[in-house]
Amino acid sequence: MDRDEKTLARILFQNKIFKSDGQKFEDLFCDIMSYAEPEFRKIKPWGNIGDRKNDGYIENKGIFYQVYAPEDISKNYTEVVRKLEGDFKGLINQWKNVKEFYFVVNEKYKGVNADAEQSLTNLKDIYKLNKSGIITSDNLERKLFLLDDDQIQVIIGSIPKIDTILKLDYSILHEIVGYILELPLKPIIGEIKFPDWDEKIQFNKLSPYSKHLLNNGTQTFGALDLFLHKQSFLAEELQKKMISIYQEIKEKWKSVSFTGEHIFWEMIEQCSPRKSKAFQEAIIVILAKYFESCDIFEEPKNKNK
Description:
Layout: H1 3-19, H2 23-36, E1 41-42, E2 56-58, E3 63-68, H3 77-94, E4 100-105, H4 114-126, E5 131-135, H5 137-144, H6 149-156, H7 169-181, H8 198-203, H9 208-217, H10 221-230, H11 232-252, H12 260-271, H13 277-292
């Protein structure tokens, strides 16, 4: 797969993750593991004996997996720890040769609670396991994209021909807009401080209102940076896309009298999936990030003096 195809494949997989709860996620995990580890065997529940707390294993290596996929993990942190401990104790009582144990959680890219990590470490020490760990959505994504292209397509479905999709690059931008729209009002991390960018704002002739919008956008920096840190391929592609859009608009206005204010609003209009306040505010968060990092808009000429 080339870059665009792989980008689209990742988006398709992430959509599967967000839509997969319960048995659907367990099936998705087992499908990936069946390709990644040819000796992996899925355990199908039978009647009232169930799966004996084992959703899949690699028998000759003593590696066992238990899968948990709640609809909203943020509302089930205590249940995560309870299920982790209960499933493992049930497993150790019914299966022999348990050397490694992995708890597979569909946390939908939100991360897991520290209590779950600590609980698993305690179980590893108590039962003298060789290894243990929690497998999250991003772990599973990395495992998927180590597979051959044809195996990836079996998992996620056929990838549409790139030449039939208009503006594929915008799918990256729109995915991140979707993430921003789901964020809570309260900043996720730390105290918010406005960047020291007054000089740059004045140099690019942005209005006080545009400055106000950019300042508001900085309140979501922490959450956006966390997301992009986990999705390094998205971070790189988003940066390239924003620079490209800025340069195209700047070139368009080159022959006439223009200010940064024109570019600012045209970028918002061009990037927004919909012409609504919520979507435009999400785009402004992205603009603020790359405005602050100097990827877009011009630096004052005396900046380095």
